[in-house]
Amino acid sequence: MPESSVFPPLIDDCWVITGPTASGKSALAIELAKRLDGEIVSMDSMAVYRSMDVGTAKPSEQQRREVPHHLLDLVAPDEPFSVACFLRHAHRAVAEIRDRGHTPLLVGGTPMYLKGVLRGFDPGPPADWEFRKQVDEDIEKFGLDRLRDRLMQVDPLSAHRLHPNDRRRMTRALEVAKLTGVPLSHKQLQFEQQRSPEQCRVFACMWPRPILHERINQRVDQMFAAGLVDETQQLIERYGTLSRTAAQAVGYAEVLEHLDGRLTLEQTVEAVQTHTRQLARRQETFLRSFGERTIVDMQSGGSLAEISQRLVQKQP
């Protein structure tokens, strides 16, 4: 685990298995881990939360007995958990797996976790809450356009890159420039370099979109059948308020609306399916920006064991 504030990439001797939600990456990773004497490090931003099991499709107890899994159930659902927190835990887990002589497999589809693994990450200075409060007050008075205008003056590259409604990231870009004197976009340049697919073991599980959508719909149905509503109710009863990240998770966010009486159960299931399909499309778009990846056609034929065998055989 690095002691400095900057986290280097983690792909030198790790395998990375990614893909959109419901693409089968976890099941494929388990087959690979068995062949490689490997251990799995989760890259799922929701799986770090304890008691959020059904809605995050965490690996079963049987799967965890077959292959060791790391970075699951790290914090309570009412606690914040950042990219820097993830990378700190991930670097430690990878180092310990290597020390045991095993192969680390980083598995998941959370975009910023994946980017930190592939390109490295500089978390920057700690939050300045007084500054953020002032920004929030300005937004309430003058709107998001004023925030964007301020960012355009100090970091035009970030202003052009970020969506004009992305209040959180525009605020952070302003904050970094204020605290360090260096635009956030300049600090991020070191993380834009990429390797070729032949130089790393980064695999993205992909399906034709109609099939992926059907897999998503089936998974959502299974989650509700497995007790997603009851699980969410128990979380509220136990913790009261979830962290912003946990409360906004697809599946839980819609069920919270259902528990508030704003959605019927049928509407809730449909909303979760729709939002999960939208999430998968965003993940696919994000994955296309990484030249490190090798596409794994999950419809190419053969079992997961056969696909994993082909991947291992291709490696030098």
Provide structural commentary.
The chain has helices at residues 25-36, 61-66, 83-99, 111-119, 129-142, 144-154, 156-161, 167-180, 184-187, 209-225, 228-239, 244-247, 252-259, 265-287, 304-314; strands spanning 15-18, 38-42, 69-70, 103-107, 201-206, 294-297. Strands 3-2-4-1-5-6 form a six-stranded parallel beta sheet. It folds into two domains: 15-122 and 192-314, Rossmann fold; 129-187, Histone, subunit A (Orthogonal Bundle). Strand 2, helix 2 and strand 3 form a beta-alpha-beta unit. It starts with 14 loop residues before the first strand and ends with a helix. It is globular and about 60 Å long. The mean pLDDT is 92. By secondary structure, the protein is an alpha/beta fold. Helix 5 (129-142) crosses helix 6, helix 6 packs parallel to helix 8 (167-180) and helix 11 packs across helix 13. The longest helix is centred in the C-terminal third of the chain and has 23 residues, at 265-287. It has 15 helices and six strands.
SSE blueprint:
Blueprint: E1 15-18, H1 25-36, E2 38-42, H2 61-66, E3 69-70, H3 83-99, E4 103-107, H4 111-119, H5 129-142, H6 144-154, H7 156-161, H8 167-180, H9 184-187, E5 201-206, H10 209-225, H11 228-239, H12 244-247, H13 252-259, H14 265-287, E6 294-297, H15 304-314
Parallel strand pairs: 1-4, 1-5, 2-3, 2-4, 5-6
Binding site for substrate: 21-26
Enzyme class: transferase
Binding site for ATP: 19-26
